[in-house]
Amino acid sequence: MESVRDQTIETLLVSVNRLIRTAAQATGSTTSSAVWRTLGILATDAPLRLGELAKASRVAQPTMTRLAAGMLADGLISRTVDPDDSRGQLIEITEAGRTHLAEWRTTLTRTIGPLFADLDDDQWDVLHEASALIASRTRTEITA
Q1: pLDDT of residue 144
Q2: Of 15, 43, 85, 100, which is the most buried if we count CB atoms within 10 A?
Q3: Partners of 81 in the β-ladder
């Protein structure tokens, strides 16, 4: 039997996924969620090698190669030679990429905001505390 805590975590995961998907669909954006996910990872964990980035973004390395090529062409990321291994390259988010990501997050926030418009102050306090707690416990983790 699932514990109440397990059920709470499951509900949180499913609800957050649904919330993000609903917001993204409502914007009408055709940009792949993998682009947004990858920019988000690079905004906090860059620089990363292509394989590390693929793993963090949960895509195959050939997929990340294609994704990175498009993002590079759009000026959202940059590539440099890895100083620890000249055969490898490090990928970082550019200022244009940061701006693009910030604008996307603002769009998502404004799109989904009306779902929460009727919350009272106490509910906002709970939501604020919960989001701060979740943020403090999560980060992208790259393992070999």
Answers
A1: 42
A2: 100
A3: 89
Structural tokens at position 133: 């707690």
The residues near 60 (Cβ < 8 Å, ≥ 6 apart) are: 54
> Rg of the Cα trace of the chain?
18
**CA 46/CA 51 separation, integer angstroms:** 13
Q: What is the DSSP string of 89-137?
A: EEEEE-HHHHHHHHHHHHHHHHHHGGGGTT--HHHHHHHHHHHHHHHHH
**E strand or H helix that includes residue 73:** helix 61-73
- Separation CA 18–CA 115 (nearest Å): 13
